[in-house]
Amino acid sequence: MANRWFNWGKKKEPEPEDIKADQTTANNETEEISDQPEPAPDKPKAGFFGRLKEGLKKTRESITHRIDQVLVSFGKVDEELFEELEEILITSDMGMETSLRIIDELRQKVKSEKIIDPKGVRQAIKDIIASKLTDENTSLKLDTKPSVIVIIGVNGVGKTTSIGKIAHYLRSKGKKVTVAAADTFRAAAIDQLEIWAKRAGVDIVKHSEGSDPSAVVFDAINHVKSKGADVLICDTAGRLHTKKNLMEELKKIFRIIRRELPEADIETLLVLDATTGQNAVSQAKTFSEVSELSGLILTKLDGTAKGGVIVSIKSELNIPVKFIGVGEQMDDLQPFNPAEFVEALF
Ligand SMILES: Nc1nc2c(ncn2[C@@H]2O[C@H](COP(=O)(O)OP(=O)(O)O)[C@@H](O)[C@H]2O)c(=O)[nH]1
Ligand SMILES: [Mg+2]
Asked: How much distance in Å is there from the Cα of 157 to the middle of ligand 1?
């Protein structure tokens, strides 16, 4: 089946000026640390499911517990019940439009399946939410060698942390990974990525603070080619002097990747912080101007009651959620499994 996220990566755009700058960049540095011991094998699934459940505690209280209370207090299934349920969804960051749609579907389902008891209603809501989160493209498409993941998003959402965790995850799957420190805006950002690279046991390519991010990516691509690595993960800045600067810089990074690796699978993953609720939806709209987004990473689902935003994001933007973060440890980012997520929520 054709993957709609695949073909756009093949465009060739020669950029003679860029390359000159890239090749003359000084201060580039590469650290090879991938001969460190392999990370521990994947923990059993129950481990992450437990952490997912724990992480979703507040969201569960905000959505499921309130739904349950309403269902208990309503003996019968009527219009008033639908209105109460609608209000719960709207106030739990699922967004107005998405909440209305879910309740509309619920009305139809209750009618067509002749659901008469609250327990049946609960199951029906659960099924509808699961269907809203399901997407055929939730897994990473990294079939080429090398392939590239570009991580974008505003400051503080969890880009660098997620890169460390994804590097660890891919490595546990036997992939050889390199990370590129293309957030050159602050020195601290480079240091932070370096710490994560060490933890995950992967190579890092970095330049000094303030250097051209595209040049870092260019060097990292050469590193990956010469080392025969499987996946390059690029960190990027979340803030520059202006939003326009940032968008232009990101576009340039994509041009370099497409030019140097015209055949490569490229995953453009936007990181969104679940605690920002509906704001995440508008961030996604802004960043989709830079490059077609192939997926989302929703971080910080632990510690927020706003986890319902995931349903809103998915149904308003129709971009698959590929990873979710439920904590700050290496294992706290996992591929998104809609069925498991809904199970943990209910
Ligand atoms: N609780 C929690 N904290 C997270 C998660 N992901 C990232 N963080 C924290 O969010 C903060 C910002 O992360 P960072 O990766 O530096 O964001 P960046 O600016 O987008 O690169 C750090 O303190 C991270 O530890 C998560 O899933 N859960
Ligand atoms: Mg960062």
From this structure: 6
Dihedral sign from CA coordinates of 204, 208, 209, 211: negative
CA 149 to ligand 2 center in whole angstroms:
15
3-class DSSP assignment, residue 157 = coil
| Calpha distance 344→60 (Å, rounded) | 8
330 neighbors 168 (Cβ within 8 angstroms): yes
| Three-class secondary structure of residue 333 per DSSP | strand
Closest Cα partner for 202 from 10, 17, 330, 73? 330
Q: How far apart are alpha carbons 129 and 123 in whole angstroms?
A: 10
Q: Which residue is listed with tokens 């609250």?
A: 118
What letter does residue 269 receive in the DSSP assignment?
E
Query: What is the enclosing helix (H) or strand (E) of 235?
Result: strand 231-236
Worst-scoring range by mean pLDDT, 145-154, 168-177, 194-203, 288-297?
Answer: 288-297
pLDDT tens for each residue of 225-276: 999 999 999 999 998 778 888 999 999 999 999 999 999 999 999 999 999 8
Backbone angles phi, psi at 125, to 5 degrees: -65, -45
Tokens of 17: 């000026």
For residues 169 and 153, what is the distance between their CA atoms, to the nearest angstrom? 20
Are 71 and 125 spatial neighbours (Cβ–Cβ below 8 Å)?
no
**Whether residue 169 has pLDDT greater than 50:** yes
Using most ligand atoms within 8 A of CB, pick from 328, 334, 336 the residue to mutate for ligand 1.
328
pTM for the full predicted model: 0.84
